[in-house]
Batch of 2 targets.
Target 1
Amino acid sequence: MADLEQMTGDWLARIGAAGDLAALETERVAALGKQGVVTGLLKTLGGMSPEERQSEGPRIHALREAVTAAIADRKAALEGAELERRLATEGLDMTLPVAGASEGSVHPVSQVMDELAEIFADLGFAVATGPEIEDDWRNFTALNIPESHPARAMHDTFYFDRKDGEGRSMLLRTHTSPVQIRTMQSQEPPIYVIAPGRTYRSDSDATHTPMFHQVEGLVIDRGITLGHLKWTLETFLKAYFERDDIVLRLRPSYFPFTEPSAEVDVGYTIQNGRRVLGGTDHWMELLGSGMVHPRVIANCGLDPDDWQGFAFGCGIDRLAMLKYGMDDLRAFFDGDMRWLRHYGFRALDVPTLSGGVGA
Ligand code: DAH
């Protein structure tokens, strides 16, 4: 057993020379495996006299420990080198174009918002935004809906317990109309904006969800008339539905923030049991609109004798359903991948007026 030192040196050299993890594993099995050399030496302990075992036992165990430690060290070194090699060679170029099909898709609501931005950008409108947590002054009062006004009750509002720094009640905005107020407060007219976004009401059935989407339109300029409103809506809806035979009907209506107010119906026909927009066979209500009430303009610090305008508000989910054929609003927000695979859009389906806003 005098050559145990020699053996230890040999094994450490063999382990140190193992060039990869597979070679190292071969050495491990040769030394420590069931039939391994070191294991064989350990087995000889059983046949030794107690004296012999006392002297040889610690030396053989020391050999096993030295070999085990050397293998662990070599393994760590080889794994570290392997990781370095992969980090150096397996780069990912994020600037390369997308190849093949990707799992994710663009939700129809996002797609329609992009379509709206594209169509209205072409008409000279910018996109305005506002917070979903709003104060009751901008959501109601400034829009000529005072505290006692029945329209407040009609909105099924989600209120927060807290008030803001100015003592105003906080709420989840019930419509995108408060963005009108924010825009008039922060921008000099002329103003041409649309404001798409999330809105909230405590309501839930096949055609109502507590969270839904609206787009607001606002124009403030000099000499604006109902004619401008009608032309803008017609141009928008023809581009959106990609049909020239879209016909609108303005019906007198009432909204506190517009005077006069008009509900806008769009004509449709029934083909193979489905509603197809265009023509004048039937009418469905599509959006609310009107000339911005002088009191609303004054509430924002502008002189209504100088500035006039029109506004409109429209449900985006409804626009998406009419164009892309879904019939249950709730499915929009279920997060079901099967629905998204069917109705979703590819990330690269960017709507453009030249390429078609329908994607
Ligand atoms: N804010 C209204 C609602 O949610 C929709 C609306 C109607 C917006 C007429 C307007 C408008 O800007 O002029 O029911």
Note: The chain has two domains: 4-89, 107-337.
Target 2
Amino acid sequence: MAVREVIRMGDPRLLRVAKPVEAFGTPQLRALVADLLDTMQAMNGAGIAAPQIAVDQRVVIFGGFRSPRYPDAEDIPFTVLCNPVLVPIGDAREDGWEGCLSVPGMRGVVSRWHRLRYTGFDPDGRPIDRTVDGFHARVVQHECDHLDGVLYPMRITDLRQFGFADVLFPGQALEDD
Ligand code: NI
């Protein structure tokens, strides 16, 4: 498959509400997932959503990575999630730093639900149903936001906590996404 171009904030295709997957187990869907995986790995992302490679479908992938940037990430299994539905559990929210392959070089603090249940389907149409919290919940919320045309800077409430990664975290050798 292929590493695809990741479109960046400012491109109107990132602002669309993506279309549901209607056919599972197809060669097209498998090819999309393979391209998403190649692209996420090439850019050292925690996850990626189909709209970020300009594909107007409700498909996200995340997890299954090890990265010094995401020390909490080892618990997240590699997941392909189509047509996701997220339901928060409880009222607790949590602030955390986020970055995005479509907003390269930047980081910002975003408030997310601490705990949630997500449902959806894998590429073969088998149901997925998980209850998660913490970083796993954050990644799912970030990626699924892309399906509704929402980028994390839109959710930052204190713009003083938004900036360039190398300025915010000098000497930490963060990767340039
Ligand atoms: Ni993103």
Note: The chain is about 20% helix and 25% strand.
